[in-house]
Design brief:
The protein is an alpha+beta fold. It folds into four domains: about 100 residues, Efflux pump adaptor protein, beta barrel domain (Elongation Factor Tu (Ef-tu), domain 3); about 70 residues, RNA polymerase II/Efflux pump adaptor protein, barrel-sandwich hybrid domain (OB fold (Dihydrolipoamide Acetyltransferase, E2P), Beta Barrel); about 40 residues; about 70 residues, Methane Monooxygenase Hydroxylase, Chain G, domain 1. The protein is about 40% helix and about 25% strand. It is built from five helices and 17 strands. The strands form three sheets. Strands 1-12-16-14-13-17 form a six-stranded antiparallel β-barrel. Strands 6-5-3-8-9-10 form a six-stranded antiparallel beta sheet, with no helix packed on it. A hairpin with a 5-residue loop joins strand 13 and strand 14. The longest helix is centred in the middle third of the chain and has 34 residues. The radius of gyration is 47 Å and the shape is rod-shaped.
């Protein structure tokens, strides 16, 4: 009886194994693709990865970095907002630089006032004081001279009437009064002449130097407000109020790198596509005057014809489309730029990756 049970169990195990093998051997029905992959529309087309960017004659998007470091105190625009050239975008804390500029302005004004004082010399009050000193010295000299004349006349009449010591003192007093008159007269002439020309020139240079220092400080103060370099649309703001920015940009906690504080695109309706052509495909690239291309938007069946703009005639490592530390840099590519008008109802944005096929007219 026991052997029969074991035999039945073995039979059931074998049948289960055969059924499992049959079930797992049946191939699964493949799922339909989420979207139809782009097909080469040209007989001998060249495939390239592309990235959409704003349309401009040079470079890619307009990446704006501050020229001075500091904490952001105000963000004056929003993403997607059209702006005009010179429009303020972001304000950085300028309290220290503003105080420095005010200090240099005061120094420049003080130097200018000193120059005006030198040019206004002689001052009327100083000239009157110097003239009074001359008149007083003249009176003192006359008094001393009269005293000397009297004593000399008396001495001539009677030598015993005036002592030798008194006569010598009168002579010395007259000489002192005469010398004092000469000094105050020269001081009067010096006061009357006004400021020395070299003092004026020196002060003029002081005014010029301090004025330039204030102008430079004011120019630096203006850089604490980031302004739009041209007309366009704000695509991205990578700073926050209270965050620190520098000439390297704003720190991104996700990528652990630095991003531009503001990224702008042009206000034109056209967009560009920058394609990266593998170096092994460059020999198959048609001449520039015969290039034609078509762009496929990923995830859709939309195909958009492209207008050739220019080639960047420099083959460089392919590091643009992902992190440089992760991408193979031994693959080199040739950038080609095309232009297109976004069709109505089709949503495309700068930074979006697309598939591009390049053919020959």
């Amino acid at each position: 009886m026991r052997n029969k049970i074991i035999f039945v169990m073995v039979i059931i195990g074998v049948l289960g194994a055969l059924f499992s093998a049959y079930v797992y051997a049946v191939p699964n029905k493949p799922q339909a693709p989420v979207f139809t992959p782009a097909a080469d529309p040209y007989a001998q087309g060249i495939f390239a990865n592309g990235i959409i960017e704003s349309s401009q004659s040079n470079g890619e998007n307009t990446n704006i970095y501050p020229e001075v470091p500091g904490s952001v105190v105000r963000i004056l625009v929003t993403e997607g907002q059209p702006v005009t050239q010179g429009m303020p975008l972001v304000e950085i804390d300028d309290s220290i630089q503003r105080a420095t500029a005010e200090q240099q302005r005061s120094q420049a004004e003080a130097a200018q006032a000193m120059l005006a004082e030198l040019r206004a010399q002689p001052r009327k009050e100083n000239l009157e004081v110097a003239r009074a000193q001359v008149e007083m010295a003249q009176a003192s000299l006359k008094t001393a001279q009269d005293t000397l004349d009297k004593q000399q006349s008396s001495y001539k009449l009677d030598p015993e009437s005036v002592s030798k010591d008194a006569l010598d003192n009168a002579i010395n007093a007259q000489k002192v009064a005469k010398a004092n008159l000469e000094v105050v007269t020269r001081q009067y002439e010096l006061t009357k002449a006004g400021a020395w020309v070299f003092d004026i020139k020196n002060q003029e240079k002081q005014v010029e130097a301090l004025g330039k220092a204030y102008a430079a400080s004011s120019a630096l103060l203006a850089k604490y407000t980031i302004k739009a370099p041209g007309d366009g649309i704000v695509m991205s703001i990578n700073a926050t109020v209270g965050g620190y920015v520098s000439s390297q940009g704003a720190y991104d906690t996700y990528t652990q790198g630095f991003d531009p504080v503001v990224v702008m695109s042009t206000s034109k309706g056209m967009l560009d596509v920058r394609c990266y052509i593998d170096e092994i495909l460059i020999p198959r690239l048609p001449p520039p005057d015969k290039l034609k291309a078509q762009m496929s938007i990923r995830g859709t069946t939309t195909k958009i014809p492209l207008e050739f703009v220019r080639l960047q005639p420099y083959v460089s490592p392919k590091i643009e489309l992902s992190n440089q530390r992760q991408e193979k840099v031994d693959l080199r590519v040739l950038p080609a730029i095309f232009r297109f008008q976004p069709p109505a109802g089709v949503q495309v944005y700068p930074g979006e990756m697309v598939d591009v096929y390049i053919g020959e007219k």
